[in-house]
Design brief:
By secondary structure, this protein is mainly beta. It is about 10% helix and about 50% strand. The chain is built from three helices and 17 strands. It has a 17-stranded antiparallel β-sheet that branches. Strand 5 and strand 6 form a beta hairpin.
């Protein structure tokens, strides 16, 4: 962890504070130009062993007309691997193998044994048209990520931020609880949710679904201006045949059970599955 940075720092201390001793041991001070050529190789790894979060944070988005939506009181906790730091998160700067810009890459744990599971919850509400409404809570149980992560780089032809996203996840339950996070009465729940890559027959491959890739099919976040003024722009470009196969990656979503809980009884709508999803192009512009 931080091996490259630690070695560089130690070398700088030796060169600056004890040059005679450093030279005696075969080390030499480095000039600014030489230091600028040094590249780390190990990146940063970190674990979230024993992690938990509880607080009264509140985030509010308010429209120009005064209407608003808010989320508050987040909580999060994670179960851990049997061996601490055996399967950490990683952040690396990697060189592109196709002559493009370097990529900052954040990788999720592989979590092969499924021991790392998240429990999440937050409250939400709206204030619009003279009505202030507490909407209840979103509660997520047993969320497990299996590899994947995010990429960040420089767009090839535009200003902004190029993104890559890959995801494989299982969710024990995603629930909308209008009466509060501790009350399941009246909730809508999605149980046993799976998201991941699929083959041509719609079968899960056990690999993350590559929704966007900085080389083969980059996503883009930037600001654009038109006759109506500046706008936030989010897009996923078409698959690039020059740096990939020219085909968008396939993913799937499976929901084991969709249900509603009501005073008169539970309503079970059964399961749902989309075997093949491909994002060939996406373009979103937000109005002021």
């Amino acid at each position: 962890m931080l091996a490259g940075c630690a070695a560089l720092a130690a070398l700088a201390v030796l060169a600056g504070l004890a040059p005679a001793q450093a030279m005696a041991e075969g080390l030499r001070p480095l000039s600014d130009s030489a230091l600028s050529d040094v590249r780390g190789r190990d990146g940063v790894s970190f674990d979230l062993n024993g992690y938990s979060l509880n607080g009264d944070l509140r985030v509010t988005y308010t429209r120009p007309d005064g209407a608003s939506i808010w989320a508050a009181n987040p909580s999060a906790s994670r179960s851990d691997s049997a061996v601490p730091f055996s399967d950490p998160y990683r952040f690396d700067i990697v060189s592109s193998n196709n002559g493009l810009a370097d990529v900052a890459q954040f990788s999720l744990p592989l979590n092969a044994s499924g021991e790392q599971k998240w429990q999440l919850a937050y409250d939400f509400g709206v204030n619009a048209d003279g009505i202030s409404r507490d909407g209840g809570a979103i509660v997520v149980s047993d969320l497990a990520f299996y590899g994947g992560g995010w990429q960040f780089s420089t767009p090839r032809t535009q200003d902004g931020l190029a993104l890559g996203v890959a995801l494989r996840a299982d969710i024990g339950q995603w629930a909308l609880r209008p009466n509060g996070r501790a009350n399941s009465g009246g909730q809508m729940a999605l149980d046993n949710v799976r998201i991941g890559a699929t083959d041509e027959n719609g079968n899960f491959t056990g690999q993350p679904w590559v929704i966007a890739d900085t080389a083969r099919q980059p996503a883009l976040i930037n600001a654009q201006s038109d006759e109506a003024g500046p706008r936030l722009h989010i897009s996923v470009g078409p698959p690039d045949a020059q740096f990939g196969s020219g085909q968008a990656a396939s993913g799937g979503i499976e929901i084991g059970k969709i249900s509603f809980t009501a005073p008169t009884g539970n309503v079970d709508l059964g399961s749902s599955r989309i075997g093949n999803i491909q994002i060939n192009y996406l373009d979103i512009k937000f109005r002021q």
